[in-house]
Amino acid sequence: MRIPAHSVCTAIRDDIVSGVFRRGSRLTEEQLARRYGVSRVPVREALRTLESEGFVTTRRHAGACVAEPTEREAADLLEVRMLLEPLGAARAAQRRTEAHLKVLRGLVRLGQERARRGQGEDLRSLGGWFHETLAQASGSPGLIALLTQLRHKIAWMYVVEQPAAPVESWAEHGAIVDAVARGDAERARALTALHTERAAAAHRLRITEHVRTSQHPVNTASARN
Predict the structure, then answer these.
(1) Residue 107 buriedness (CB in 10 A; 0-12 / 13-18 / 19+)
(2) Cβ neighbours of 178 (radius 10 Å)
(3) Which domain of life is it from (predicted)?
(4) Which one of 5, 63, 99, 141 is most buried, counting C-beta atoms within 10 A?
């Protein structure tokens, strides 16, 4: 069975973001095909996609390598996110479904509960799911794709510290959902702009990277679905 290139792309991207492949390191088709248990064809396609996303670059005489973004490029990502996330929230207020609202409210409930208990690791995951669902609620495929790519890149370039006041942070999430539920696009935009601006202060550039040696084959089960 041929493994889709998007599954290989996801696996390589995850390994870049998590530090398995260091910035500047070479990525050969043979090496990647062996690591993920696939042929070189989907690897080649995946590398082209990752190059278009900015995770991979092609160097003369070296071939494909993990990109080495500058501090300015990293700073630009946060600035772009601060522009796009409020737009996504405004559109969500106009296009969200009841299913989106149900998920968002459930995440806020869990987030507020975990914040009161001081369960930081859970909060990080819940926050990611919240912003992903909010983007999905925008009903804009192009915007969703851009925000997804931004989240991957920011996770790659930054360490995110826990907010000093997690209860207040999740209260902000709740206020955003309330605005989205009422269809108040301008309030949803303003609240999200303020929230993302405050969240940006918790991002710290990664100074060092550690190579991880765990290897996992591509999940072929998901390729069959």
Answers:
(1) buried
(2) 16
(3) Bacteria
(4) 5
Q: 3-state SS of the chain? A: CCCCHHHHHHHHHHHHHCCCCCCCCECCHHHHHHHHCCCHHHHHHHHHHHHHHCCEEEECCCEEEECCCCHHHHHHHHHHHHHHHHHHHHHHHHHCCHHHHHHHHHHHHHHHHHHHHCCHHHHHHHHHHHHHHHHHCCCCHHHHHHHHHHHHHHHHHEEECCCCCHHHHHHHHHHHHHHHHHCCHHHHHHHHHHHHHHHHCCEEECCCCCCCCCCCCCCHHHHHC
Q: What is the pTM of this model?
A: 0.81
Q: Do 12 and 50 meet the contact criterion of CB atoms below 8 Å apart?
A: yes
Paired strand residues for 159: 204
Residue corresponding to tokens 């989205």:
180
- For residue 126, give both structure tokens: 């819940």
Cα separation of 27 and 195, whole Å? 37
In one letter, which amino acid is 127? Answer: G
